[in-house]
Description:
Blueprint (H helix, E strand, L loop, with lengths): L1 H23 L5 H27 L1
Amino acid sequence: MTLLIILACVFGAVALMVILGERFGSPIDEKQQSKYGKILVILVFISLTAGLIKAMF
């Protein structure tokens, strides 16, 4: 029963984010999108490296 409550809360939060994102979000241009893409690759690499180091020790 607890799992169903947690899943319902997660579903409600995601639905709320989608609704608010569609209503108040604005599209970004290609320059800004490429900048965020470069930053995202760096952050993923750092998090994978940190996870690997944490798993080793």
